[in-house]
Design goal:
With about 425 residues, the chain is an alpha/beta fold. About 45% of the residues lie in helices and about 15% in strands.
Length: about 425
């Protein structure tokens, strides 16, 4: 495998996110295929890290450069950011970080700019202490775009700072123990035999948080389907859905399949239809079913037009993990901060209400619909459900919140699950 310059690869990936609005989860995996296993983790750390702290890197560049890099030189702007990030936030020895970052200019065919990069990074090293102190007093120190801060302050006047703080941390690694094979405590004992330790979750019976993240191949029985990587809050969907054997269950907006497979682990004799609008992401549903040895019907389809993919069929239970801003999972996907726009929120809320209205007639009388999002914004969550209950006479809220404040809102916490919302609705 030809040795790649990881810094230039990271700079080009970050440029695609920030300038072209591409998602890091689409860009990164093919890049990681080109590097050794040892380098995969570093490449991910550089991309995630720069996007997590992007406001800081932009602020530093504005301080240290008299004019921005434009046009074909733009990648150098992001390469310098990769340099700052290593010097500030990693244990890479400064001389190595500097040398590799400067070499990145050669990999992106801009060797004439090596001196510029070297000069900016060395100047930063000389002024690092006072620059960091000045940044910590600046408006940008929260590392979030202005529009999102404004919405968080409005929705959570007491808690917005702790939400922002949690979003800026590296996420914990949560697992879901497959109860078909082991109880959670049995699997925890296997984990300890493998010299690792984990913690349980009070509310979600299959959830284990690793004391420190580990590669999946190191987890006991991962290839045999004994365990799945899934955040604790996402597991909460099945706690509220409470699927039963023999039922016909719809998992809508199902990709990548974490919740589809959790339904089948909880109720192996249920008949599950998994539907998602994104044909490409459905391949991940098949992969997850295969690894866990589970069977479901999988279809591509739009949640707004259920009759196209299920005719007039009615279901005992429906899980609607609605398309949303993903503002509850920023610590896992820091590019969300820079890909989302303020105007997206109303558009997403409109889409969610259309899907809710379209799918409700496909729930049997007495059936359960769980509405879930990985958002922390009320427009997509409590306000969405309040409006739905108002216009839907045969829908009633069950055990999740109150009529004034419907649903349950999880906020991200250092040792907790991601930001997540659930509302359990019963059809009269």
């Amino acid at each position: 495998m030809k040795k790649q310059n990881l810094r230039s690869m990271a700079a080009q990936a970050i440029e695609k996110v920030v300038e072209q609005g591409q998602s890091l989860s689409n860009i990164l995996p093919p890049l990681q295929q080109k590097v050794s296993d040892k380098d995969k983790a570093l490449l991910q750390e550089l991309c995630f890290g720069v996007l997590r702290t992007l406001s800081q890197q932009e602020w530093l560049i504005n301080k240290l450069m008299s004019r921005p890099m434009t046009g074909k030189q733009r990648t150098i702007h992001y390469l310098i950011m990769v340099g700052f990030y290593q010097l500030l936030h990693t244990r890479i020895p400064p001389h190595a970080a500097l040398a590799e970052t400067v070499e990145g200019a050669v990999a992106i065919k801009r060797p004439q700019l090596k001196g510029l990069i070297n000069g900016v990074l060395r100047q930063f090293q000389r002024q690092q202490e006072e620059l960091v102190a000045e940044f910590s007093q600046s408006e940008q120190r929260f590392l979030h775009p202005e529009w999102l801060l404004k919405r968080l302050k409005k929705a959570y006047p007491q808690q917005w700072e702790s939400i922002v703080e949690a979003n800026n941390q590296r996420p914990p690694m949560w697992l879901r123990v497959n109860r078909i094979h082991h109880t959670r405590d049995e699997w925890l004992a296997l984990l300890e035999q493998a010299d690792m330790s984990g913690f349980t979750h009070d509310a979600h019976p299959d959830a284990v948080r690793l004391a420190s993240p580990a590669p999946v191949q190191a987890l006991p029985g991962f290839d045999q389907g004994w365990v799945t990587v899934q955040d604790a809050s996402a597991q909460g969907c099945i706690t509220y859905l409470a699927p039963q054997n023999g039922e016909r269950i719809l998992d809508l907006c199902a990709a990548p399949g974490g919740k589809t497979t959790h339904i089948l682990e909880a109720a192996p004799q249920a008949s599950v239809l998994a539907v998602d609008v994104d044909e490409q992401r459905l391949s991940r549903v098949y992969d997850n079913l295969k690894r866990l040895g589970l069977k479901a019907q999988v279809k591509q389809g739009d949640g707004r037009t259920p009759s196209e993919w299920c005719g007039d069929e009615k279901f005992d239970r429906i899980l609607l993990d609605a398309p949303c801003s993903a503002t509850g999972v920023i610590r896992r996907h820091p590019d969300i901060k820079w890909l989302r726009r303020d105007r997206d929120i109303n558009e997403l809320a409109q889409l969610q209400s259309e899907i809710l209205d379209a799918v409700w007639p496909h729930l049997k009388s007495g059936g359960t619909l769980v509405y879930a999002t990985c958002s922390v914004l009320p427009e997509e969550n409590s306000q969405q459900i309040a409006a739905f209950l108002k216009r839907t006479s045969d829908a009633a809220l069950h055990t999740t919140g109150t009529a004034d404040n419907p649903g349950i809102q999880n906020l991200p916490g250092a040792e907790e699950g991601d930001g997540f919302f659930y509302a359990k609705l019963i059809k009269a």
